[in-house]
Amino acid sequence: MEIWINPACSKCRSALTLLDAEGADYTVRRYLEDVPSPDEIRAVLERLGLEPWDITRTQEADAKELGLKDWPRDEAHRDRWVKALAEHPKLIQRPIITAEDGTAVVGRSEEAVRDAMSR
Length: 119
Fold this sequence. Notes:
The protein has 5 helices and 4 strands; from the N terminus they run βαβαααββα.
């Protein structure tokens, strides 16, 4: 398992605490420092079964500056969204946990983190 975190995020810290308490084997990726490439973002989106706008933190200052709320949410604009996430990683919802079975979850709740551990 790999977990994409922002150490300043309370949801990320809670997820790490639960993973540690359960003895889970995982690696940490501080995605603000080790920024995922567009291809890595596409791969995690496929694992999540989501679109880039589904994992975008639209209330962040960068999102407002880019005017993301007005961007079309369709296949034709998907790459534009992925590029924005790669260029502004603060916009990526967190934490994202990649599971052993090739799937992934956005681990914002205890249930989601446990779900990732069970895969």
